Amino acid sequence: MTEGHSNIVGFCCNYAGRVSEEVLREAGLMPDGVRIERLPCTGRLEVTTLLDALEAGADAVFVAGCEEGTCHNLSGSHRAHKKVGVAKGILAELDMDPGLVEMFFVPRAETGPLVSAAREMASRVAGGKKGQRSER
Amino acid sequence: MEAGRSPNIEILANARLMALEGEAGGFTARVHQEPRFIDEDKCTACGTCTMYCPRPVVDLYNERLDITRAPHIDYPQAIPAVYYIDAKACLRVNYESCNLCAQTCTAKAIDFSQKPREHVLDVGAVVLAPGFGKIDPAVLARFGYGKHPDVVTSLEFERLTCASGPTEGHIVRLSDHKTPKKIAFLQCIGSRDETCGNGYCSSVCCMYAVKEASVAKEHEPDLDISIFFMDVRTQGKGFDESRERAEKKYGIRVIRARVPRVEEIDGRLALTWTDEDGTSRSELFDMVVLSVGLDAPEDARQIADLCGVELNKYDFCLTSAGSPLSTTRPGVFVAGAFQGPKDVPESVTQASGVASLASEELASARGTRTVSVMYPEEDLEIAKGPPRIGVFVCHCGVNIAGVVDVKAVRDYAADLGDVVLYEDPMYSCSQDALKNIARKIKENRLNRVVIAACSPRTHEPLFQETLRSVGVNPALVEMANIRDQCSWVHAQEPAEATQKAMDLVRMAVAKARHLEPLSLQMVSVIPRAVVLGGGAAGMSAALAIADQGFDCILVEKEGELGGNLRMLKWTLDGQDASAILANLVTRVQGHPRIRVMTNAVLENVTGFVGNFVSTIRTGDSNEEVRHGVCVIATGGMQYVPTGDMYGESPKVLTQLELEGRLSKGKGGLRGVNSVVMIQCVGSRGDGMNHCSRVCCTQAVKNALKIKEMKPETAVYVLYRDIRTFGFHEDLYSEARRKGVVFLRYEPEDRPQVLKAGNGLKVRAFDRLLGEYIEIPAGLVVLSTGIAPGENEALSRVVKAPLTPEGFFLEAHAKLRPVEVSVDGFYLCGLAHGPKSLDESIAQAKAAAAKAAIPLAKGEVPVTPLVSRVDQEKCIGCGICESLCPFHAIRLVKVDKRRKAETVTASCKACGICAAHCPTLAISMGGFTDEAIMAQIHAFSERCAS
């Protein structure tokens, strides 16, 4: 990852918007440094998966699951939400910003909300970095 | 325009049918007509009312992309060419206020006292032509229509590309009015979509998308356009050529995928689709055009109930392959998109076809209720005297007078030589102004009239009639266009415009001095038709002509009637073809007005429309036949395959041969476990260039027949595009449901028929697997195309041009689809191009209707604007004869010297001969060299002075 780019991992449900990241990135719609990992269902995520991503160098992690009542597996995104909550707690205990892990509920098959989620996380990371610099 | 001017067509606009009682030959139709609040006889279509009306309304003609006012006309060429007031929006109609338009209308045409009217019409036959309806907006909403402004329908895009449309032809995005860079067309919106109830194919969208994309590229060459097709269905005559041009010349990208939805991300439109090999792809576009299909009319059920006709399952009018234009109620006929989705040439053809059916019905009453215009005897002496010119300078409301100083132009005309009368009517085309002109011509014994007003294209016939009505030769009027070519284009420079108007009037007067009366000639017509070809089209045409009450000679080259129909076992909709054939043959042979000549060919034709003499050879004997018109229905042939082991292996058949086997029952499939069909054998670049239009449906029909007779048989169809257009799409869906396997191939990678032991196998590329597969084939069936018949010899005899593919060329693809450029010759069936049985029959009816016009009138007019040869000057070089596209000039021997002579009945007054004559021996009526020179000299007078 080149300097200045944030490194963000987004875990998203297979049924979220299908427009490819490269196309979105080329058009300047998707922030640089965002990598989308598709899962059969976000309910499969473990807390450790989220933390592993951070440990592996991600500046932030987000999960994009289905809106309530639209999940293929009934409660998959609900479970993911709970896991994100636990991860947030652990980050807080470690004195890290819990905002670096976030859950988003996105309508199925729509790419727009997924892009907004990625942008939100990118701006959080950018804001955090700026904050760190000013602290110094 | 033609329909608007005919005295025998009454147009009831703003009206709907309320009831239809009685039966064929004696219907009573009740019609309710809403008021238009503008008097049709007084309105001159000047547009002042639209200008002053304070009430904006959405312009529905421009697909809601523009606004207009309560009084308006949809487009300038609308018929009747009269404005109407939108009663829902008008302030005067709804609130008794305003009344501005009535006060500003100088023609006093606005009439708010008009009430709805009820008409009771006694009619013999009824034609339903309500067109098509729009696709349900809920279907469009799935593709983001209504949510994202840059998703537009193809109808809206059509208005955007139109020079007279809301953006004057500039292609813009509706969101920011900027020119888009990347446009995607999505096909099959509301068609081939069982989720919205429209399982059929709308037939026209592939071609119109290609056309709209090409037009857009011509406007904006930098556009990047992609069209998403399922199958590219450009099966019409010459359509494949246009599509190839669009791909090669304009670089339009063809993507074979169905896009499920349109997403908007920050003002960009994202499309995601699955490629043929299964990979998912996405791309961003600036604008998405939805190629909307043709739905049944919204009020189809209501029409059906009122008229007592049945609909098919998609709410289109129910017809059958044997009688494609007849509804289920006798005497009620259908034409156009209500019969099934179709394009303009087919609709125009069907329209002529129903005209034939209606006149067959009404043949006994022909001429009893028609009106013809009578004129007084022409005063031949008046033109011979010295020129007495009357000049009328029209105000056209404010259209001309708002810019040009009309009174100054009128007074200027007064000083021109030979001008004895000069006036400035408000609207010279209004009824009372025309009466005034007629009176003034008579009172002042005018023998030349100059009208300085608008375009002769639209108004000259009107003024010519005015002259005729007072016994003056109609050729003695000259028009100066001081509106379209002066006040409209020079609106900002009134002084210069006035000067130009004076110039135009001076030039017109100069030309008018040299105008000569031209005689209106009529040539009588021999009331007999010759129909060439005794197949389905020829027999249908002959029957239609004979049923309209005219003698007909049917010339068949073989020993027996039937043509290609004899080889067909089932029609595309599954009817027994032999029953249709038998019915046609019996009716033809039993008809007292039809004479059948078998084993006969046309050897030679001389003469012109109304008076042909044809030599017909039967065996060794020749017979001369005199007739007024001729219908070409010589048919086509089955393409004979040259490869694919056809002729080498008895297991390789054509579709027609397969049909023969299937008609023998299940025994025809004994020992056959799999059948492989190969499409486009001979068509689309494989030997012949054109698409044969019917083979896809024929293959699907036969595949279904096999599945019905022996369901365990594996059937494969190897195709390039499945073109089961219209309701035939149902057959395609059914075939897929029944397990027929369809595999697409590219022409560069054609399937190969190979030997496998005693049997055969076909090697083809499977796009989903991404590798070649070998299919064992009990039978290989080649879907061979339709080749043109022996048209070249006939085209030389009748001097009718052929297309590059060898079919006969119609006079105009859209306006005159069943006429040949040689007057008196008409065209139908496979001689015109590949088509199905029902299309052939509809076209045969159309050709019969057109052919019956001269027969019914008994005489044909000869345009007075023909070329004339001065044989003193003619040196007999023959340039004119070789150049004339209508064969209307010929060389004859006069005193042993070759001289050109015009065949006035065939001359179309194009002027090519006059322009090329090296000795200036040819002049055109109405445009003589002296008159044009005088006009040019008059132009230079101002420059000189």
Structural features, described:
The complex is a heterodimer of chains A (136) and B (945). Chain A is of the alpha/beta class. Chain A has one domain: Rossmann fold, CATH 3.40.50. In chain A, 42% of the residues lie in helices and 18% in strands. The longest helix of chain A has 24 residues. The two termini of chain A are 24 Å apart. With 945 residues, chain B is α/β, with parallel strands linked by helices. A 5-stranded parallel sheet of chain B has the order 9-16-10-11-12. In chain B, strands 25-24-23-29-40 form a 5-stranded parallel sheet. A 5-stranded parallel sheet of chain B has the order 31-38-32-33-34. Chain B has 6 domains: 123 residues, no CATH class; 156 residues, 3-Layer(bba) Sandwich (FAD/NAD(P)-binding domain); 117 residues, Rossmann fold, CATH 3.40.50; 185 residues, FAD/NAD(P)-binding domain (3-Layer(bba) Sandwich), CATH 3.50.50.60; 147 residues, FAD/NAD(P)-binding domain, CATH 3.50.50.60; 59 residues, 2-Layer Sandwich (Alpha-Beta Plaits). Chain B is globular and about 100 Å long. In chain B, a hairpin with an 8-residue loop joins strand 3 and strand 4. The chains are: A alpha/beta (136), B alpha/beta (945). At the A-B interface, loops of A face strand 13, strand 14 and strand 15 of B.
